[in-house]
Amino acid sequence: ATPTSIMVGTGKAAENGILFKGGEHLEQTHQLNTIVLDKTGTITKGKPEVTDFTGDNEILRLLASAEKGSEHPLAEAIVAYATEQDINLLEVTSFDAIPGQGIKAIIQNKEILVGNRKLLDGYNVDINGEEGSLSEYEAEGKTAMMIAIDQRFEGIVAVADTIKETAAEAIKLIQDEGLEVIMLTGDNTRTAKAIARQVGVDSVIAEVLPEEKAEKIKELQSQRKKVAMVGDGVNDAPALAIADIGIAIGTGTEVAIEAADVTILGGELLLIPKAIKISHATIKNIK
Ligand code: ADP
Ligand code: MG
């Protein structure tokens, strides 16, 4: 590989908004055969909105007050929804985030749980009657969370995120370059599959805990795959670091950008097939 052609390649990439940290990453991009995309904030805009809520205003007040302590995009959506309805929030005595599951808060001596099946199951809340509603929301690609107060089920809040306009086209172009495209998410399988169908990925790995994302990349690598990970969140950082190529979304967190080898400006997914194309053109010229 001549240093000059690599410089020309990374220069051309930079002009397009693809920032390689070093020339070696352009060469590694040429070798890729698998690309793993985080869902929230990568395939979707990461700005979810509440679409459905089954409780009354008092439940909403407790729900939103509890979520106020969370920095998760799901929490932001719920707090924004309550604010729009002029709901005043209550003071929170204690707050805990349970990664990949939800949150727990104490408000006015009541224990508030908000999260997925795993969370409520873990606290012995009876959610047997709710499976039908949950599945319906999930089949629509929504993330459905349940609220329990003092271990009693009180309602469902469903949130939907908008898929980026160019996601399906970008994924098609990556596939045209001969790569397999996989979606990786902590969200539940049914929701993930509904989104996957809309954007045309080859397969889905769902219900992955934040700390397990890197493990999933390693598994793919052990199947002799050359893997790029694309992500935006703090919880994507270890996976970005361990992948053969880590690609951070420019609109994502600083931690993700630091852990990655490449950053694509503005979160434009079309820059991913573009980067692959530039790497192929550059390496071909070297040979
Ligand atoms: P993602 O990979 O989509 O960012 P996470 O691992 O952050 O997913 O979260 C997985 C699941 O845990 C969510 O789909 C949701 O059901 C639940 N969850 C996470 N954070 C919260 C929260 N603040 N409130 C309610 N539920 C949450
Ligand atoms: Mg994300």
From TrEMBL:
Superkingdom to which the source organism belongs: Bacteria
Protein's cellular compartments: Cell membrane
Record function comment: Involved in copper export.
Family listed: Belongs to the cation transport ATPase (P-type) (TC 3.A.3) family. Type IB subfamily.
The protein's name in its UniProt record: Copper-exporting P-type ATPase
Source organism: Mammaliicoccus stepanovicii
Primary gene name: copA
Parent-protein start and end of this portion: 458 to 744 of 794
